[in-house]
Amino acid sequence: MKPKHGQHFLIDQRVLNRIIRYAGLTKADTVLEIGGGTGNLTLKLKEAAGKVIVIELDRQLAVGLTHITRDSNVTVLQGDALEIPLPDFNKVVANLPYQISSKITFKLLRHSFDLAVLMYQLEFANRMLASPGTPDYSRLSVMAQYFAGIELLETVPPSAFKPQPAVRSAILKLTPREPPYHVNNFGFFEKFLKAVFGQRRKMLRNSLRSAAPMLGIPAENLQEVDQGILEMRPESLTPEELAGLANRIQAGT
Ligand code: SAM
Fold first, then answer.
1. CB of 222 closer than 8 Å to CB of 164
2. Where are the beta strands (DSSP E) in the chain?
3. Is the CB of 34 under 6 A from ligand 1?
4. Which of 107, 163, 179, 232 keeps 20 to 30 A from 38, CA to CA?
5. pLDDT band for position 224 (50/70/90)?
């Protein structure tokens, strides 16, 4: 039976120890963990950090974590990490439930923190890391790299988990920083990326023409920009070039 809520527990002690090392934890750190599960990672976070806050959706597992929280620096919040307001933290360390990877990553990235060390499904991690001109380069790559520097720390085989997932995993380090280029209107940029990467094999001119009503811009705005760029496909443009194009077609200049 497929485990509910992405409950693949990390049991390889060497991987768990490396996650703690990657996060460079000290007693000055307040760490957020998404999905405490049976507490494998929580126990190690508890030793290394000053304070640990765990959000766990599964009521039974949340109750099970009380053996770690009693008289300790660990607090457990039972609930859905996508729904409940996030507490203050300066690092986030988690073996994520893969079905919420995208939503929880962007929820986290809207908060201010120093560092994230997160386990993802390898395929998803590859898309977050991807550079222009590669098959994995997508809306996710552009959006994630807008908010943070992203680094692959290691790939992890299914045998590190119990029960074993069907897919390989990867640990990423996310370091939030100032966006490396300017976006006039982030909401518009998100819709623009959805439109162009939704039809990634098409020339930008064609996908933008059909998306103009959804983007709320007159189709004439497309005539105001460099026509050479419109003959390209989204995957050959850097994030900064995509942002420049989005800024111009929204402004119609
Ligand atoms: N940290 C543990 C470990 O490494 O062994 C458990 C990791 S397991 C991949 C993911 C955990 O996230 C599960 O315990 C699951 O119940 C919990 N979870 C799933 N969806 C969640 C959500 N929306 N909010 C909070 N926790 C969630």
1. no
2. 9-10, 30-34, 51-56, 74-78, 91-95, 115-121, 148-156, 161-162, 169-176
3. yes
4. 107
5. confident
Domain boundaries, the chain: 9-176, 186-251
pLDDT given for residue 65 in this prediction: 95
Residue whose entry in the numeric block shows the structure tokens 């990877």: 101
pLDDT mean over 144-166 = 97
Q: What is the pLDDT of residue 41?
A: 98
Handedness of CA 133, 252, 177, 51 (dihedral sign): negative
pLDDT digits (tens, 9 = 90+) for 56-99: 999 999 999 998 988 789 999 999 999 999 999 999 999 999 99
| 34, 40, 53, best to mutate for ligand 1 pocket (most atoms within 8 Å of CB) | 34
Mean pLDDT of the chain: 95
| Helix, coil or strand: residue 55 | strand
Cα of 110 vs its chain's centroid, Å: 11
- DSSP conformational letter for 240: H
CATH, domain 186-251, list 1.10.287, 1.10.8, 2.50.20, 1.20.140: 1.10.8
| Alpha carbon nearest to ligand 1 atom 10, residue | 97
Name the residue at shortest CA distance from atom 22 of ligand 1: 80
CA of 71 to the centre of ligand 1 (A): 23
User: Phi and psi for 233 in degrees, rounded to 5?
Assistant: -100, 155
Q: What is the pLDDT of residues 104-120, one digit of tens each?
A: 999 999 999 999 999 99
Q: Which fold has domain 9-176?
A: Rossmann fold (3.40.50)
